[in-house]
Write a structure and sequence with these properties.
The protein is mainly beta and about 575 residues long. The chain contains six helices and 30 strands. Strands 13-14-15-16-17-18-19-20-21-22-23-26-27-28-29-30 form a 16-stranded antiparallel sheet, with no helix packed on it. Strands 5, 7, 8 and 9 form a four-stranded mixed sheet that branches.
Amino acid sequence: MQPKIRCSGMRSLARRAFMLALMVFLSAAGMQAADEELIVTAIEFTPTQYLTAEEMLAAMTETKVGEPYDEGKLTADLYAIYALAQERYGRPVFYDIQGELIAHEGGVKIVIHPIELSAVDLPSYEITGFVIDIDAVDEAVFRKHLDLEPGTVRLDDLFAAIKTALQNTNEETGYFFYLPVDPYLDEEGRVNLTVRAARLGSVAVEGNQKTRDYVIEREIESKVGEPFNLETFYADWWRINRLGFFSAVEPDITEEWRDDQVLVNLVWRVQERQTGSAGIGAGYSTNNGFSGYLELADENLFGRGQSAAIKWEFGGKLSSYDLSFYDPNIAGSRFSGGLGIHNTILRGRKSKDGLYDADSIGGYLSFGRRFTDMLQASLRLGIKDSELTYKEIDKEDIERVRSLRLTLFGDSTDSLFYPTRGLRYSTSTELARPIWKGTEDLTKYEGQISTYHKVGSNDQVVALRLMGGFAVDTLPDTEKFHVGGADTVRGYGYSHMIGDKMLVGNVEYRFKISDAVHGVVFVDTGAAWDAADKWDLNDLQSAFGLGVRFDTPLGMMRLDYGIGSEGGKFNFSIGPTF
């Protein structure tokens, strides 16, 4: 006969170490017939040094005084008491927990008897090795954590070794392993272990009123019926947050026994934020001066995860309209697509030949593919026709750009709007050739990388960005790099430096003043050079200053005051710097 090692209690996600047996003693005096319903009239506990009676009673959430007795509910409550003690002391402290039923006042009184490990004379076994049947991972992953040599082994040492192996394997792999059946010794003295990973029983989404379920579900890679994995779970959480449609995303996880296996049931509870806007107003930008605008936009169009915008902007230095549409998951796939048209009139722009006005019209068509969370690519075909008038030299010019741009980008930050950790990067190559009545022949490379580091408390962040770009030859005026202003080097005017290549670096210390107001301390540096010039870091111009950010329904408004080599300057703009 094979000796039975009582440790099937390891079946739960809490990795309990012992079997909790329900020992029922029925008193003959006054007990109701077996087929009649027993009402619980009292619950008592024998003393233990590890938990008080009040704590054990609070752990019993299933069995209640005044309700019918249910053996399954009582068994679950005994497990709960065991788990409470193990979590508190970080190790098993009970060998067993028994429930005794005694006839009482026309019903049944339940007496709980915790049996402490220290009160039990545990047996020893001659162990020659282990036979391990495990799913989800290779047997070697579990075996390397099973620190127990063959020989005479006390039962409690065996339990402790198995418990530690389960915990360490869970931490390494992200799964939740348990023992669905009791370990046993075979005739050769080997401990036979059946180890299983908890599986995902169900996934649901709640709280979304506008957003369609499938928009959220397509970001979830955890599959019902497969082993539940923490790394996959956190990646799902990150992707749902990255949609940008929710002010809060909270998971609700419960576990249950069903058909002799542990199942994890998951509910994603979301709170939607406002993604659509319709507005009319006026504003001021250091690039374009005073302007008015009309805008209708939605980042989550009809709840389908698509974005669309119509904007008309008018003012002394700028008049434009833009129409755009973007679908990040065409037909639920990993492919994206977008299109847009625009017409822009600019006044008083800087160039090497003096100030010029430009009237441009164009459009684009883009296709993209998400390969991983940190690698996406897009291909964009653009057409832009511009008429330029140089007032100071009485010159007119026409630029027709037919371009193809390939961009690789990725983002591992924890928030779209206020990242506290992670990295963002993008790199692009743009080619324009004189085809389809085009006039320009250019090759242009750009790239940038930003990192975010949480410091101190209250979501204080140090953010850094490095960006650069260069062209193979001289660029037309509408395609040149501009350094200076709210988006590059604050403290200088827009187009303070113009060239065919550029380099910009930014450092920001960000801190919250309130939920809707943030403060910034920054240092910027940058320069632009002509195509024939060498990259000379001595040409870098720097500035430092302070800024404030306001979260509004139209997006983030930012006001910065930077001090450069020519004095101080305010910069105002909409949207984050980086």
